[in-house]
Write a structure and sequence with these properties.
By secondary structure, the protein is an alpha+beta fold. Helix content is 50%, strand content 17%. It has nine helices and seven strands; from the N terminus they run αααβαβαβββααααββ. A hairpin with a 4-residue loop joins β4 and β5 (131-136). α2 (11-29) crosses α7 and α7 crosses α8 (182-195).
Length: 229
């Protein structure tokens, strides 16, 4: 932490470190071997429960800020659940996790069901690729939100630079956890950028690209999430 505070006092040194970090991240995210491993991971999960649905990757691996030790976040659509059919059914999500755990083969190490989080997940290591993984069955909202963040991060190179710098700062201070994720941190950064009109608000972004009304991806009793496609 003291080392990080030193860097902040030296603007040029801090900027140089972030540029080096971005170069390293770009190498990882553009590495064809890693992309092949991610495909292998998805296939392994889908093959566990044959003909049961499709696996999607979301999170930092999608919006291009993953580093070498980043987890892989996954959503398993078991059929017609992408739009949120079981989003409010916590019990059903746990049942699907339990089915996956029982069907999982030796490729999946240290399977652990996490229920303390808002969305139940199963955490494991995929042995052939050595990826640390979090898998959920709730809905495709996380996939769509990742695409939205990816759009924001590619609109202006300053946005991605600042997001990576703030994430680096948060990791250095050990601020990130299951309760306060990189995803939450990114939206805080984007909110500030919307305030200063560096990026447009979501509704303006929608109007720029579409003439029709939004499609509702997931509706709960307390909130409505919209699909930006």
């Amino acid at each position: 932490m003291d080392h990080f505070h030193e860097l902040l006092r030296d603007k040029s040194k801090f900027c140089h470190q972030i540029e080096c970090l971005i170069s390293s991240i770009d190498l990882i995210n553009n590495d064809p071997v890693i992309k092949e491993c991610l495909d292998k991971l998805k296939n392994s999960i889908e093959n566990c429960v044959e003909n049961s649905g499709q696996v999607y990757i979301f999170g930092s691996r999608v919006y291009g800020i993953a580093n070498a030790d980043s987890d892989v976040d996954l959503y398993f659509d078991t059929g017609d659940c992408f739009s949120g059919k079981i989003a409010d059914n916590y019990t059903r999500q746990l049942q699907l996790i339990d089915l996956f755990v029982k069907a999982a083969n030796r490729e999946f190490i240290g399977l652990k069901i996490i229920t303390e989080t808002r969305i139940p997940i199963v955490r494991f290591i995929h042995d052939p690729t050595n990826f640390n993984c979090d898998l959920h069955f709730r809905s495709g909202l996380s996939v769509l939100n990742s695409e939205l963040i990816k759009l924001y991060l590619t609109m202006d190179e300053r946005v991605r630079w600042i997001v990576i710098a703030v994430k680096h700062w948060a990791i250095s201070l050990k601020l990130l956890s299951d309760d306060f994720s990189t995803y939450s941190l990114i939206w805080l950064v984007l909110y500030v950028m919307m305030h200063y009109k560096i990026v447009p608000p979501i509704i303006d972004l929608w109007k720029m690209h579409h003439k029709h009304e939004p499609n509702y991806t997931e509706v709960t009793r307390s909130t409505v999430h919209q699909k930006i496609t």
